[in-house]
Design goal:
Length: 404
């Protein structure tokens, strides 16, 4: 010891990144409770608002290193949600109710086509418009699961919402992978244009099949009512996430399909372990807060107008798509409207797809990132609000969400 200075804090105090992360989470928790108790909004709206405020007001504190470090937390939260959503997707139900599959496909194609066409019409480059349209297809799996758990929603609209969120995630990932192949050709990489999408799609499916089969073989030999057995699932998901990064495969496709394969190894339905959702809830909060950090005023200047157009067209396309065909799958008009509005949430999956493109081609990724970040700023506030209202409108909320 060289002196007393080593025993006491030095002035002025210089708190590190952990201090600000902890403070942001405290603020997010308080904001979530204010939304729940006084505004009768889902907690997740408060989490998103906290992240946006931290990103805009704390620009001197939030640097690129901090934003990069949050990427693994976003990946982990998204991986858990995608696997759980894949596990909830019943292929037997889809085979018995094919109009649900047709409705999902039509709504997704309408969203992609309308967003891509109109964005090009207002001056966005074709590559950015097509990729943004593909990303707009996605419905956030993390927010949908969080809303279901918070509102204790059950019913036809809720079950279809979970199924369509899973399908939309698959469609969005596939569309973006194929569009990325076309982007390779635009940059003159013809070999990559042919091989890269094929590698992503085939490789992700094979890895998902292997993980689902192996994971179930291990998990089936454990006591499922033992609350420690869920650690196997968490470890399986995180191991798969690491493999997708190591092999440079599509994380959304792999985790969703692995969940589907895992589920359909059982001859009898298996209740999803409640602890899995609890384990992921903190990561979801961190993810939602983190997604507001990268947004700057410069992004609004570049992509704010296009983002507002994207949000409006996306909501119209999803509502029209579901209302047009939803009745054929057994829904009333009221339920169709509720389902179309409930597909609004957009969050971590969109960010993941966008950032992967930005790493490959920064020239295309910069304007695309500006549009998607601004879109997420709107949809992380508007999407859960619309979805929560829609589930209440459908009469499927079993509690008031904890409000007064």
């Amino acid at each position: 010891m060289n002196g007393l200075s080593q025993l006491f804090p030095s002035l002025p105090l210089a708190p590190g990144g952990l201090f600000w992360v902890g403070l942001a989470l405290v603020g997010a928790g308080l904001a979530g409770e204010v939304c729940r108790m006084y505004l009768r909004l889902p907690r997740i709206v408060g989490y998103a608002a906290t992240g946006l405020a931290a990103g805009m007001l704390g620009r001197g504190i939030v640097d690129e290193d901090m934003i990069a470090q949050t990427r693994i937390l976003i990946d982990m939260a998204l991986a858990l949600a995608l696997f759980e959503l894949g596990h909830r997707l019943s292929l037997t139900w889809l085979r018995a109710n094919r109009w649900l599959l047709f409705t999902s496909a039509f709504e997704s194609l309408l969203t992609w086509g309308l967003v891509a066409a109109v964005l090009q019409w207002i001056g966005v480059s074709p590559a950015v418009a097509i990729l943004a349209g593909g990303i707009a297809v996605s419905t956030s799996p993390t927010i949908v699961l969080q809303l279901k758990n918070e509102l204790r929603a059950e019913g036809q609209v809720t079950e279809r919402l979970l199924a369509m969120a899973a399908l939309n995630s698959i469609y969005a990932a596939a569309i973006v992978q194929v569009a990325t192949g076309w982007l390779h050709s635009e940059y003159g990489n013809l070999g990559a244009a042919l091989l890269h999408p094929l590698y992503l799609l085939v490789g992700s499916c094979l890895l998902a099949w292997g993980v689902g089969k192996l994971g179930h073989a291990i998990y089936a030999r454990m006591e499922t009512d033992d609350h420690y057995s869920f650690l196997v699932l968490v470890g399986l998901v995180l191991f798969t996430l690491a493999l997708t990064r190591l092999l440079k495969l599509s994380m959304p496709l792999t985790l969703l399909l692995a969940g589907v394969v895992f589920k359909h190894q059982d001859s009898q339905p298996r209740v999803w372990p409640a602890h899995f959702g609890s384990a992921g809830s903190l990561l979801i909060i961190v993810m939602v807060v983190s997604l507001g950090l990268p947004l700057t005023a410069h992004d609004w200047a570049i992509g704010g107008g296009a983002a507002c157009v994207l949000v409006l067209l996306r909501h119209i396309a999803k509502l029209v798509g579901v209302v047009s065909l939803g009745s054929f799958s057994g829904l009333s008009m009221k339920q169709c409207v509720a389902l179309g509005l409930a597909l609004a949430p957009m969050s971590g999956l969109a960010y993941l797809l966008m950032s992967d493109i930005a790493l490959l081609y920064p020239a295309t990724g910069e304007p695309l990132a500006a549009i998607i970040l601004c879109t997420l700023a709107i949809e992380q506030l508007l999407g859960p609000t619309l979805a929560g209202w829609a589930l209440r409108y459908a009469g499927e909320v079993r509690s008031n969400g904890g409000g007064r």
